[in-house]
Amino acid sequence: MKARRTAHSGHQKPCAPPVPKPIRIEPAFEDREQIRAMFKRYAPYRALASYAPEGVEDETGEEAKRPVLPWFRGDWALSGKPLVEGADVILHNEKFREAARTAFGTSLVFPEFIAVNINAPMPACTTHVDNPSFYGATRVDYPLPYLRVMGFSGLFEAWRVVRATTLSWFYDSDGGNFDYWPDGIDGPMRSERPPFGNLALCLDTDRLYHRISAIGDGNTELPAISAAAEIQPDGEDNWTILDGGKVRATYPSHKIRFSILWKAEVRDEVSRPENLTLDRIMAIFIADLRHRGIAFRVPSDPLADTGWILLLQRIYADSTTQR
Predict the structure, then answer these.
(1) What is the pLDDT of residues 24-79, one digit of tens each?
(2) Phi/psi of residue 174, nearest 5 degrees
(3) First-residue to last-residue Cα distance in the chain
(4) Angle, helices 306-316/144-153, rounded to nearest 10 degrees
(5) CATH H-level superfamily of 23-322
(6) What does the longest C-alpha to C-alpha distance in the chain come to?
(7) In this structure, are strands 257-267 and 108-119 parallel, antiparallel, or unpaired?
(8) In which band, very low, low, confident or very high, does the pLDDT at 243 lie, cut at 50, 70 and 90?
(9) Which of 284, 204, 223 is nearest to 6 (CA)?
């Protein structure tokens, strides 16, 4: 990794290091079926929409009109510590660590968390990058839309927490490709396709655009569910979506796409930059907006001011996320 810790003076953007090339890991696990069995063991799983809102609702209520997709998530490790039995095998997978060292050019790899995704048949998701984190500004204290716009602005690269991501999949049915753009969103798309086998892919999903392609044949009707929905096995080789105590949909296990998301912080030095504060973040945004000649009102509560966040989204959000 190249040095990136530079002083910042408002509108002058520090140069970010190039996005590392993805690395395939095969075989990903010594005992793939042991890992696969964990999905049933630690069910149920909550709808992704329950804790990862897409964005800020504007005055038209546009965000509220979007259907909740049958996309569910669970956490198996957080803050470098396993939350469920067996997660340590994934968290400390030496093949994952070695791929991260190679891809990012550093020996400093700190495994942080494991999340699992459970997807029923659904349309392709939006092409996107993952939510970034910054030293002093993480999802613990900052809303996700605010962190996203900080990432898109390019103004906070000196404080970005650089993470390696390794993805692995358990799905052999129709659709469900992992599509990604290793040379940028205007370059050619590449795909990992089922049957996935014992494969994992190490990459930088905080900066490399990617998506899940349509799962199933593309004609399956979405269940009418809320963000409170959960999915769980029914004991008969099916998975059932429950919402409000009622069964909303049932699918055979082979129609459900399972995946594992492993993330590790990577650094090129032991020391970390000084943490950002909200005052410093605001000073950087304000300086850049004034440099651009943008008229705005300084909010009294910038993390809760919808108008302010919408302004930042209009100025900085990358339109390619809607492809």
Answers:
(1) 999 999 999 999 999 999 999 999 998 755 455 544 444 456 789 999 999 999 99
(2) -80, 145
(3) 30
(4) 30
(5) q2cbj1_9rhob like domain (2.60.120.620)
(6) 62
(7) antiparallel
(8) very high
(9) 284
106-162 confidence digits (pLDDT tens)? 989 999 999 999 999 999 999 999 989 999 999 889 998 899 999 999 999 999 999
CA–CA separation, 8 and 11 (whole Å): 8
| Joined tokens for residue 21 | 């090339």
Q: Tokens 């964005």 identify what position?
A: 55
The per-residue DSSP string of 96-163 comes to HHHHHHHHHT-SEEEEEEEEEEEE-SBPPPPPB-PPP-BTTB-TTTS-HHHHHHHHHHTTTGGGB--E
Q: What's the CA gap between 39 and 247, in Å, rounded?
A: 20
CA distance 201 to 193: 12
Say whether pLDDT at 179 is over 90: yes
CA 316 to each of CA 90, 110, 140, 260: distance values in angstroms, whole numbers, following the listed order: 36, 30, 22, 30
Closest residue by Cα to residue 51 from 140, 127, 111, 132: 140
* Structure tokens belonging to residue 5: 């810790």
Domain residue extents for the chain: 23-322
